[in-house]
Design goal:
The complex is a heterodimer. By secondary structure, chain A is an alpha+beta fold. Chain A is built from 29 helices and twelve strands. Chain A is elongated, with a radius of gyration of 38 Å. The chains are: A alpha+beta, B mainly alpha.
């Protein structure tokens, strides 16, 4: 029986009480209770660590009142004993009436218009207005994420939207064309217009009691939506009351400019009734264009066909047929202008090298359908969704390659220039994308795809195998996490890898590329690499004031033993060992770094060693010389002895003579 | 050339005349000096070295031995009788020839003493140099003697 998990002293979660009826795809729900506040029953969603949750939007959703959405209570990263790791946990108030539909394929009793409007539409629109004011979109509005808020099942509330990236689990029929065309993980934040569309899809479900086209695949669904319009595709000929038809046509408009706004829905709820608008279908070309053996009659479906057949579409794109079709059959000046802008004239297109074909296809798709996501080599993403897509499948080589090609293609600026509406929130992202190719194409630690991962996901946890289980999301937590890893009995390797380096640079303004470049050396096993790692982590520890880390310091001391042993001067080596031990005990990596990073000491040692060798040799030579002198001592002594004898006699004689003269004189 | 040769012959003649005159006047002293300095003459004859260290050594001591008797002759009675009396005294011979013997002794003993001193000093220097080498090895490790670092030595051992 596992201990209860406590989140911020407010909520207790029982890992032994799963609540499967509230599970989200890949996210399990558990029963929870509030410790102090008056809350009803709570449910806690224990997130999947592979799936980035919407950290940015938590504060916006916190404190939302009303019954239109499960009320968010608290969140935190906690030790989840069953998984033997730390995981993010999000806690909501538990809807009392259970789930509206267990799956999108469920069939149930249709609801009356009055019940839908009072119990779902009115509160949901108020909620979306509130969310819109806070700059957040729900982006998880789908039939199987609706809950009855009360036991009487009169009020319907939207379920959780924070445990996964926006729109990840929304089926293609719940998403606008622009969102459905993107890979589910790469749909981006979206906006209230996307929520309103999804709301329309849910209304169809509630009105009909079923989803008429839930069994269709995403590709077929998109084709139908393009060719028939969303309303026609989603209702599939089902009878819908005139009143609701007006609302649904408004919500399911495929042109975002014509899609009903919150204000228009409120007017409709207030009683304004207008004649339902006919869906505006894309204009047909004078003749279809054939792509990979299939005919496409309008520009949007042609773009979709090109994107799907990117491997074989190059020849068609270079041929006269495509140029003629765009300029003569489409009769759309805007598209011609876009094509001229991104592809140039036909001669330029034909002169492009074969290796540029995937890029040309991507550009052609952008020109034909600028509102669609960027589609390159089978990867279809909105620019604010690439980070989540990468985070979700980072371990897959093909996904990394796709994202790499996407970034190196430098499509973002071009895509933004084609947009009818300027989105100021994307400007910051554009600045990031502008720098990413340079970062991506450097191979050393601190660069490459890992750096892209952390640059595009500002709140994702560090994926280093060493500390992944500790769920480190902030730079302040990095050194304490490594300290814990260092304290483990089975620690091995080094406290540095590509993820830790990239995470440090991406998360800390105090750690720039000067700190990770030394990790790039070809010798990843030498002490230089360890010293570079130590320097980087010492910087992080110092700047984040994350406290002493004696176990981590001891780890570094182990790794740097050969560096100390490299000192030729035995006294200095011993002194260094003592100072290293003292520094390691303090747990301050900067102290160790000061010792190991003293290159002058190394130079002094090397110079001293060279001098010592020279002196030793000199002494040896002198000893040899003196030994020879000893052997020739007799000869030298006789030579010098005679001189000495002569001088001594002279001196003695002089003294004697002087004494004699004085004696006679007295 | 002829003038110069004639000049030098005249000078030599003058010197000989002067020395002869002085010798004639100081003949008793010359007698004692001549007899007393015989060991020096012998040393000069036997000394083959150009520097004449043996002659110098014996001569200095020999002259010191002769000097007291010369001074006695000069201060008491500078006559042949007195000179013969001095020469006839065995003590005079003992002193003059003893001093010469002391000169010889110094000449023979000095190289031995000097050799011993040189040896001692050289040994001390060698000891000092060996001690310095030991200090270097103690401070820098045995590699300093062989011109390799410890690490290199270990590698060498491992390779072996």
């Amino acid at each position: 029986m596992a201990d209860r998990v406590v989140i911020k002293e407010r909520v207790e979660i029982d890992p032994d009480s799963p609540v499967p009826e509230f599970d989200m795809p890949n996210t399990k729900a558990y029963a929870a209770v509030a410790r102090r506040e008056e809350h009803g029953d709570l449910i806690a969603y224990v997130c999947d660590p592979r799936i980035p949750f919407r950290h940015d939007d938590i504060d916006s959703v916190r404190g939302m009142t009303g019954s239109a959405m499960m009320r968010f209570v608290e969140w935190g990263v906690a030790v989840w004993a069953p998984a033997r790791r730390r995981l993010p946990v999000l806690v909501y108030e538990r809807p009392q009436g259970g789930r509206v539909a267990k799956a999108v394929s469920d069939v149930q009793e249709p609801m009356s218009e009055d019940r839908i409007v009072r119990g779902f539409l009115t509160p949901a629109v108020a909620l979306l207005r509130d969310l819109s004011t806070r700059g957040v979109a729900h982006r998880a509005i789908r039939p199987d994420n609706l809950f009855f808020a009360d036991p009487a099942k009169k009020l319907i509330a939207l379920g959780d939207c924070l445990t996964c990236p926006p729109g990840l689990y929304n089926p293609a029929f719940c998403e606008t064309l622009e969102q459905a065309m993107a890979d589910p993980a790469a749909r981006g934040r979206g906006g209230v217009a996307d929520d309103l569309y999804s709301l329309g899809v849910c209304l169809i479900f509630l009105v009909l009691g079923r989803n008429p086209i839930h069994e269709l695949g995403a590709t077929e669904m998109i084709e139908r939506k393009i060719n028939l319009g969303s309303y026609g595709a989603l209702t599939a000929g089902a009878r819908i009351q005139m009143n609701m038809m007006e609302l649904l046509r408004g919500l399911l408009s495929d042109d975002p400019r014509e899609r009903w706004s919150i204000r228009e829905i409120e007017l409709w709820i207030g009683g304004r009734r207008l004649t339902p608008k006919q869906a505006k279908l894309p204009s047909k070309a004078a003749r279809p264009i054939t792509i990979a053996g299939r005919d496409y009659e309008n520009v949007r479906s042609a773009a979709e066909g090109l994107a799907r057949n990117w491997l074989t579409a190059g020849d068609m794109l270079r041929g006269h047929d495509f140029d003629n079709w765009v300029r003569r059959s489409l009769n759309d000046d805007k598209v011609v202008e876009n094509v001229n802008k991104v592809l140039g004239n036909h001669a330029a297109l034909q002169g492009a090298p074969e290796s540029d074909t995937p890029r040309l296809v991507t550009r052609a798709c952008m020109a034909l359908d600028p509102a669609a996501p960027i589609r390159h080599k089978g990867f279809s993403a909105h620019i604010d969704g690439v980070g989540a897509a990468l985070a979700l499948e980072f371990d897959r080589d093909d996904v990394r390659q796709k994202v790499s090609d996407f970034i190196n293609g430098r499509f973002v600026g071009l895509w933004m220039s084609l947009q009818a509406r300027t989105r100021s929130d994307l400007n910051e992202l554009y600045a990031i994308y502008d720098k990413l190719p340079m970062v991506l194409n450097q191979t050393g630690p601190g660069f490459g795809m890992e750096r892209v991962l952390y640059a595009l996901n500002p709140h994702i946890h560090c994926r280093s195998p060493l500390i992944e289980h500790l769920y480190v999301t902030r730079i302040e937590e990095l050194v304490p996490a490594l300290e814990r890893a260092a304290s483990a009995k089975d620690r091995g390797g080094r406290p540095m890898d590509r993820h830790i380096a990239a995470f440090s640079v991406a998360r800390s303004p105090d750690v720039d590329e000067r700190f990770v470049r030394p990790l790039t050396g070809t010798d990843q096993t030498g002490t230089d690499h360890v010293l570079a790692a130590l320097t980087l982590l010492a910087r992080v520890q110092a700047m984040t004031k994350s406290g002493p880390a004696p176990a981590l310091a001891a780890w570094f001391v182990d790794l740097m033993k050969s560096s100390v042993n490299g000192f030729a001067n035995l006294k200095q080596r011993k002194a260094m060992e003592q100072s290293v031990t003292r520094a390691a005990e303090t747990g301050l990596l900067i102290e160790l770094q000061n010792i190991y990073g003293d290159t002058k000491a190394v130079q002094r040692d090397q110079q001293g060693y060279a001098r010592a060798m020279q002196e030793h040799q000199h002494c040896g030579a002198q000893i040899q010389q003196l030994s020879i002198e000893i052997q020739n001592r007799e000869h030298m002594a006789s030579e010098l002895g005679e001189q000495v004898a002569a001088v001594a006699s002279g001196v003695i004689g002089s003294i004697g003579s002087t004494a004699i003269i004085i004696a006679f004189m007295l | 050339m002829t003038t110069r040769t004639a000049g030098s012959a005249a000078t030599r003649m003058i010197v000989i005349v002067i020395v002869a005159c002085i010798a004639a006047v100081t003949l008793p002293s010359v007698l004692i000096l001549g007899i007393g300095m015989l060991p020096t003459l012998a040393a000069m004859i036997t000394d083959r070295r150009k520097e004449k260290y043996a002659t110098l050594c014996v001569g200095c001591m020999n002259f010191t031995g002769v000097m007291p008797f010369m001074i006695r002759l000069w201060t008491e009675d500078h006559s042949y009788d007195h000179a013969f009396t001095v020469i006839a005294d065995p003590f005079t011979w003992l002193v003059m020839y003893g001093a010469a013997a002391l000169g010889w002794a110094i000449y023979f003993v000095a190289p031995g003493i000097v050799g011993m001193f040189i040896g001692l000093r050289t040994e001390q220097r060698i000891q000092r140099l060996r001690r310095r080498q030991r200090d270097l090895v103690e401070e820098w490790g045995p590699g300093v003697a062989s011109g390799r670092r410890d690490g290199e030595e270990k590698e060498k051992r491992n390779a072996g």
